[in-house]
Specification:
The complex is a heterodimer of chains A (576) and B (250).
Chain A: E1 5-15, H1 19-30, E2 35-38, E3 55-56, H2 68-78, H3 85-104, E4 119-120, E5 130-131, H4 137-150, E6 155-158, E7 161-169, E8 172-180, E9 186-196, H5 217-224, E10 229-230, E11 235-242, H6 256-259, E12 263-265, H7 273-276, H8 286-298, E13 308-311, H9 317-323, H10 325-335, E14 344-353, E15 356-357, E16 371-373, H11 390-411, H12 421-436, H13 443-457, E17 461-462, H14 464-481, H15 494-518, E18 527-528, H16 536-539, E19 541-548, E20 551-558, H17 564-570
Parallel strand pairs in A: 1-2, 1-9, 2-6, 9-16, 17-18
Antiparallel strand pairs in A: 3-5, 4-5, 7-8, 8-9, 10-15, 10-19, 11-14, 12-13, 13-14, 19-20
Helix pairs in contact in A: 1-4, 1-11, 2-3, 3-11, 5-15, 9-10, 13-14, 13-15, 14-15
Chain B: E1 3-12, E2 15-24, H1 31-41, E3 61-64, E4 67-70, E5 84-87, E6 94-96, E7 99-100, H2 103-111, H3 129-139, H4 146-150, H5 152-155, H6 166-176, H7 186-190, H8 203-207, H9 214-231, H10 233-242
Parallel strand pairs in B: 1-5
Antiparallel strand pairs in B: 1-2, 3-4, 3-5, 6-7
Helix pairs in contact in B: 3-6, 6-9
Classes of the chains: A alpha/beta (576), B alpha+beta (250).
Chain lengths: 576, 250
């Protein structure tokens, strides 16, 4: 073992400390494994804290008619049937238990008058289903899991560590390699199993609700290690992000504003959702509302800064401050707007990726032995469009399952897989290269350029021609990314950190373009102007991306078909 | 083009200085935007923490013109033409530039007994709205540690060995007042947590970006709880008779 890195050893290594990572850590520890949790930020800062509206689970506390079957059907329909139905079934059945478990661990929710967990309406959920606490549900979830995890003696947390490479023993997982952000010291984590819970890659777009961490390292590392990615063309544009002033463009305006009765209007004062979805109106699914706002703006009916008006002021100041306190504060401080009196200006912002690493539905196992994935980084649950509130329950349900199964896999191995120093050595060379050149590309500049390419060619509305151009630009950026240059030292150096992020993001951009080119239809979040209709043929296929001989290869895979008893639930007749 | 002048602390444990930067002014810009501009266009080695840029995560804490604030929530236009000085939180050991070592807070949190319902009290629970609503305030804490930064005990007196600081008084209050929690943290508060050191100057409340009434709603009720348990003469008498059983707080 070399001296130029530190070594830590755990049965199960969890990468990421958002909702999925922490829930996986707790589950793996409960199953008897020793667990290491690695996060890029401080503990408790993960992007999960930004989840505002709530956790979708069919408790039926407010609408007793609700049950897992309706939740199943809503989720499948929202995903335009591109979802893995087996994941959706597990999800809809287990979500209520996961919510009650949070409560047992000290999590607090808004209550009904008779003391049960209160549930609010949300886009495309048939019944009032989102368990919530004001508009900071994600913070409550992460604090609850965080406190549970840090008090478990089997869990060790490594904060501000970036992992950049999965280490393999043959084809199976042997651990991961990276560096401490504080001082650049290299670290090797030896592990029998690794759970990726690294979230999404909204940062490949400029206008996004995502934080700096959402650079998709986990997905890109898995791709480099040979795992299959799926549905990469499916990027969710949340209909309502802030638009003005420029500094706040993209920051999320929670769907709970519409859940609590917020109304969308165009510059002419028309309630335009009447034209796009007269039944569900503002509470239609996110892809529909985002496209509606986009089309209003394109047709010249946008607000001064290119968005729509979202008005909640009719609910009264007291109600708004109680149910949407963060929104009230956010607009007052950042935009000088009092939302209890005036409407907000909103426009679509990149919020979530439905695609990611392909996993086995019940276990979270990827196609690499010993490698698991859960949460946003995993694909399959949400299909072509995610419903609001389904993300937090996704984290809990599949975080738990991935943690348990990773622990079980680890227990099945008699000894730790072999550590291959050459892999760590090679990754160190990749990481240090930007210090060696005298001149070269600025990583921030490349990041900005890749964001521009994605915004221009892989936005809400796509065309084959645009996607092809975008792909070519990304391939050119990949070449330039071989020649990045940074100054300074290894000590907390954000420019250096950005170099590896950029290389990862460029993989994901390429995957988005190649998958989007392949899907020659419109479905859910993927809207092709040159193929505006849904095509039942494409509805039976997921698009797969995998690395073979150093090149990205695109394939299709049949969407698993529901057995009749589940298909019956999704029939239009079953809709209320 | 209009610009804004920033004086940003650059340095590490061995020392440092304020360096001046001119940043183009954009409407609605916050201090964190200006720091990002410097990173992308002037010096990519400038270190700072940030995550959500929406005042939800509490990562980008700094002392802005001497006042502990979140950089993402501080508009540059509020300073007019005056230069904006940005320095790291003073109470924690410096790592580099605006990044400090806040690991002490995480060690403290680990010492606090977690939420503990009665064994066998399995949900789903019925809890009246008013019993949880008073706790919501404590749960809004985003752990920006600005309150720790201004706390006299920690800042002026280096009291990290004897007082947990306002953040963890809020944390403990949230646990102690949870209707389903069964553990008393009174001994901890009186002992290692050092609640007696707080002399209620309320500086922590002034800087809290979540407007938590740290002293009024968390610290003072906890002080009362400790006083009830340890300094109530009737209870002292009872203890003499019945032995030093620790009563559960109200």
């Amino acid at each position: 073992m070399a001296e130029w890195y530190d070594v830590h050893q755990h049965d199960v290594l969890i990468v990421g400390a958002g909702g999925a990572g922490l829930r996986a850590a707790i589950a793996a520890a409960d199953a008897g494994a020793s667990v290491g949790v690695v996060c890029k930020s401080l503990l408790g800062k993960a992007h999960t804290v930004m989840a505002e509206g709530g956790i979708a689970a069919a408790l039926g506390n407010v609408d007793p008619e609700d049950n897992w079957e309706v939740h199943f059907a809503d989720t499948m329909r929202g995903g335009q049937l591109l979802n893995d139905y087996r994941m959706v079934e597990i999800f809809a059945r287990e979500a209520p238990e996961r919510v009650y478990e949070l409560e047992q661990w000290g999590g607090l929710f808004d209550r009904t008058p008779d003391g049960r967990i209160l549930q609010r309406p949300f886009g495309a959920h048939t019944y009032r289903r989102l368990c919530h606490v004001g508009d900071r549900t994600g913070l409550e979830l992460i604090r609850t899991l965080q406190d549970r995890a840090v008090h478990s003696p089997a869990i060790e947390v490594y904060m501000e560590v970036t992992l950049t490479r999965l280490l393999l023993d043959g084809t199976r997982i042997a651990g991961a390699f990276g560096y401490r952000r504080e001082d650049g010291r290299f670290v090797v984590f030896r592990a029998k199993a690794v759970v990726l819970a690294t979230g999404g890659w909204g940062k490949v777009y400029k206008v996004t609700s995502n934080s700096w961490e959402s650079t998709g390292d986990g997905c890109a590392m898995a791709y480099e290690a040979g795992a299959e990615l799926m549905d990469m063309e499916m990027v969710q544009f949340h209909p309502t992000g802030m638009v003005w002033p420029p500094g706040v463009r993209g920051i999320l305006v929670t769907e709970a504003v519409r859940g609590e009765g917020g109304i969308l209007r165009n510059a002419k004062g028309e309630r335009f959702m009447e034209r796009y979805d007269p039944k569900k109106m503002e509470l239609s699914s996110r892809d529909v509302v985002a496209r509606a706002i986009y089309q209003e703006v394109q047709s010249g009916r946008g607000t001064p800064h290119g968005g729509a008006y979202l008005d909640i002021s009719h609910r009264g100041a007291d109600y708004i401050k109680r149910k949407l306190p963060s929104m009230y504060e956010q607009f007052l401080k950042l935009a000088d707007i009092d939302i209890t009196r005036s409407p907000m200006e909103v426009a679509p912002t990149v919020h979530y990726v439905m695609g990611g690493i392909r996993v086995e539905p019940g276990t979270g196992a990827t196609t690499v032995p010993g490698l698991y994935a859960a949460g946003e980084v995993a694909a399959g649950l949400h299909g072509a469009n995610r419903l609001g509130g389904n993300s937090l329950s996704d984290l809990l349900v599949f975080g738990k399952r991935a943690g348990e199964h990773a622990a079980r896999y680890a227990q099945g191995l008699e000894s730790f897989p072999r550590l291959d120093d050459a892999q760590a050595e090679e990754e160190r060379r990749v990481l240090l290269r930007p210090f060696e050149a005298d001149k070269g590309e600025n990583p921030y500049q490349l990041h900005e350029e890749l964001q521009e390419v994605m915004g221009e060619h892989a936005g809400i509305a796509r065309t084959g021609e645009g996607l092809q151009k975008g792909l070519e630009k990304i391939l050119a950026l990949q070449e330039r990314a071989e020649r990045m240059r940074v100054g300074g030292s290894l000590l907390y150096n954000p420019g250096w950190h950005t170099c590896r992020d950029v290389r990862f993001m460029l993989h994901l951009c390429e995957a988005i373009f190649r998958s989007a080119l392949e899907r020659r239809e419109s479905r859910g979040a993927h809207w092709r102007l040159d193929f505006p209709a849904q095509d039942p043929e494409w509805g039976r296929k997921n698009i797969i991306v995998v690395r073979e001989n150093g090149r990205m290869v695109v394939r299709t895979r049949p969407v698993p078909q529901m057995p009749p008893e589940l298909a019956r639930l999704v029939q239009p007749a079953a809709a209320s | 083009m209009a610009t804004v002048t920033l004086r940003v602390f650059r340095g590490d444990r061995t020392g440092g200085e304020l360096r001046t930067y001119q940043v183009p002014l954009v409407e609605g810009m916050v201090v964190l935007d200006a720091i990002h501009y410097i990173q992308a266009h002037v010096d990519s080695t400038l270190a700072c923490r940030w995550n959500c840029k929406a005042a939800r995560c509490g990562s980008c804490s700094a002392e802005i013109n001497g006042r502990p604030r979140l950089m993402c929530k501080t508009r540059v236009d509020e300073f007019g033409d005056r230069p904006i000085t940005v320095q790291p939180l003073k109470v924690f050991p410096l790592i580099r530039d605006l990044v400090t070592d806040v690991s002490w807070n995480y060690r403290v949190n680990k010492e606090i007994p977690p939420f503990t319902p009665a064994p066998g009290d399995r949900g789903p629970w019925r809890i009246a709205p008013e019993d949880v609503e008073r706790l919501f305030e404590f749960r809004t804490c985003i752990e920006c540690f600005l309150c720790q930064d201004v706390c006299h005990v920690l800042r002026e007196h280096g009291g990290t060995d004897r007082y947990y600081g306002p953040r963890f008084m809020v944390r403990i209050a949230g646990l102690e007042m949870h209707p389903k929690d069964t553990v008393s943290r009174a001994a901890l508060l009186r002992g290692r947590a050092g609640i007696g050191y707080c002399n209620i100057t309320k500086c922590c409340e002034e800087v809290c970006p979540e407007h938590i009434h740290i002293t009024d709603n968390a610290i003072i009720p906890l002080k009362e709880r400790v006083a009830d348990v340890y300094y109530d003469p009737w209870r002292a008498l009872l203890r003499l008779v019945r032995g030093p059983r620790e009563p559960r707080g109200a």
